[in-house]
Amino acid sequence: MVVLNKIYTRTGDAGETALGNGTRVAKHAQRVTAYGTVDELNAFIGVARLHASGDTVAAFSRIQNDLFDLGADLCRPDMERDTEAEYTPLRMVPSQVDRLEAEIDVMNARLKPLRSFILPGGSALAAHLHVCRTVARRAERETVSLSAMESVNESAVKYLNRLSDWFFVAGRIANNDGVDDILWVPGANR
């Protein structure tokens, strides 16, 4: 259980932070950048929730909780030493990726196929979902960059990849099931 009775600790004043296993690293370390971007994405979802209702709010809640799981996964290096940990580290699992795929399939079944790329925008919710999509892609790039240096749970990378797709399709749903999508017109302003 998490207990936060003191918010500031002053332990990061010198530009370092602690990872989930207690190791101190620079705040600009790639691992911190990866899970920090996941946290940023979670905050953008919180803004998008202001424009959502019903099933979308429930989906956002599931995703936001998953992103805390993902942050916990990314802040804990040395997956190969998980069995030696004081407690079992939280790791992303394939079923979380599978759930996103199933939700994407259900949403996409409502939509007509795209005949053009779409521009971010339309409804307020769709515009926020496109911001979430791009931040999810950045989180994925940061996590892939980390995986080139250290071991990373492959389900974490897959989750971020599917999540950006989820936001894309959800953005179309938020635009009156794609009817109000803003289509890209190549060379329109030449």
Written account of the structure:
It is a single chain. The chain has 190 residues and is mostly helical. It has a single domain, classed as Hypothetical Protein Ta1238, Chain: A (Up-down Bundle). It is 53% helix and 5% strand. It contains 5 helices and 4 strands; from the N terminus they run E-E-H-H-H-E-H-H-E. A two-stranded antiparallel ribbon has the order 1-2. The protein is elongated.
What's the topology here?
Layout: E1 16-18, E2 24-26, H1 30-49, H2 55-74, H3 94-108, E3 118-119, H4 124-147, H5 154-174, E4 182-183
Antiparallel strand pairs: 1-2, 3-4
Please give a quick description of this structure.
The longest helix is centred in the last third of the chain and has 24 residues. Helix content is 53%, strand content 5%.
Beta-strand residue percentage:
5-15%
Number of helices: 5
Strand order of the largest sheet: 1-2
The CATH architecture classification is Up-down Bundle
**Unreliable stretches covering 5 or more consecutive residues:** none
Report mean pLDDT, rounded to a whole number: 93
Could you tell me the CATH topology label. Answer: Hypothetical Protein Ta1238, Chain: A
Helix content class: 40-55%
CATH superfamily: Cobalamin adenosyltransferase-like
Straight-line N-to-C gap = 59 Å
Question: How many domains comprise the coordinates?
Answer: 1
- What value does the Rg take, in angstroms? 19 Å
CATH class: Mainly Alpha
H/E element sequence: EEHHHEHHE
> What is the molecular shape?
elongated
DSSP, total strands:
4
